[in-house]
Amino acid sequence: MALGFYKEVLYCGYSPNVCNFNILMHRFCKDGRVKDAQLVFDEIPKQGLRPTAVSFNTLISGYCKLGDLGEGFRYKEAMESEKILPDTFTYSVLIDGLCKKSMLNDAIRLFNEMAQRGSVPNDVTFTALLNGLCKNGRVDLCLELYAHMLRKGVKPDLVTYNTLLYGLCKDGDLRKARKVVDEITNKGLRPDKITYTTLLDGSCKEGDLEMAFDIKKKMIEEGIELDNVAFTALISGLCREGRINDAERTLREMLKAGLKPDDATYTMVMDGFCKNGDVKMGFKLLKEMQNDGHVPCIVTYNVLMHGLCKQGQMKNANTLLDAMLNLGVVPDDITYNILLEGHCKHGNPEDLDELRSAKGLVQDYASYTSLISELGKASKDHKQT
Q1: Structural domain boundaries of the chain?
Q2: What's the per-residue H, E or C state across 27-45?
Q3: What is the pTM of this model?
Q4: Spatial CB neighbours of 382, under 8 Å, sequence gap ≥ 6
Q5: 86, 79 in Cβ contact below 8 A?
Q6: To the nearest 5 percent, what fractions of the chain are helix, strand and coil?
């Protein structure tokens, strides 16, 4: 342990130094070993030294990054009891920690305390609070805070702009979002992958695919590679608009780029094809998905089941149910309701009442097969008579 080595150095006659203790603490906190950093902190007074603001801030930052705000605030109080005033760094770290836990009222209260004590917020402080407000849907307060930031003469950096952009896109305000991107370039900053991907995702969610593909084109022109988030946003947007062939082409492009679509992305495209009556393509994608190392979940199988039942392929639907069970995929009530709905629409009309009354009640394989078997037998007996 580094602390043990440092103690050995001290025992050899070297004078203890707070700066060295702070360096050790920083090293431990960077590695996530905050308890070790605390041991170093506790050693400072034992060596006849007094912790500095850096000592306290290092430990406070370490605990906040671990999500232990209780310890963070405990050391803030200890700092104040030592007559060391919390500085901009102290407040910024604590505000960021509170925002990450969605404790916005506490974060705003701490921000106000900071101003009352004469500590000047910087771009890091403002960005932390802006981020918390945006992620919790308080875009109105976010814009007010941004205006306050500009009035205070604090210059936003690209991280600040991207945070603001995220909030506006989440709120569906693409007009203001575009203005933020224009402001970025007007300030001499260069939009990055986060900037473009955030705007692209927002455009897709608002159904503005023309804008989304314009952004994609600009990213390619500027040599910015699209990532999983960008491709998934485009595929999702195309599926929502019913442009399934374009969605599939984008999926192929994503795979060609060396990216790996997740289960939800594959399932979205499969659902689109199944709804269009192309169940065969749905199963083709299932096979590709499995070959790519994915283990499809019940949601994926329900999409295929719905496609088969919609077309009246009840025999194939039952075969799929058996295959699911063999693979260890447990059907849910949605699965059985899809199957019962299929039998209602494409089975014997005389069985309709019993099938409809069973919907929502059949929740396992045994009860489903028993019901279908009984209906099949009753139908057979009816025909013979």
Answers
A1: 1-84, 226-277, 297-385
A2: HHHHCCCHHHHHHHHHHHH
A3: 0.80
A4: 350
A5: yes
A6: 75, 0, 25
Exposure class string for 33-69: b at 16+ Cβ within 10 A, else e: bbebbbebbebbeeeeeebbbbbbbbbbbbbbbeeeb
User: Which of 278, 280, 277, 250 is closest to 266 using CA atoms?
Assistant: 250
Compute the chain's Rg from CA coordinates: 30
Of 55, 81, 72, nearest to 106 by C-alpha is: 72
Hey, what amino acid is at 74?
R
Please tell me the distance from the alpha carbon of residue 317 to that of residue 298, in angstroms, as a whole number: 14
* pLDDT tens by residue, 30-86: 999 999 899 889 988 988 899 999 999 999 999 999 999 999 999 999 999 999 999
Give the burial string for 175-193 (b: 16+ CB within 10 Å, else e). eebbebbeebeeeeeebeb
Distance, in Å, from the CA atom of 123 to the CA atom of 113, rounded to the nearest integer, reads: 17
Who's near 327: CB < 8 A, 6+ residues apart? none
Contact 54, 22 (CB under 8 A): yes
Q: To which residue do tokens 């989440």 refer? A: 170
Amino acid identity of residue 37, one-letter, is A
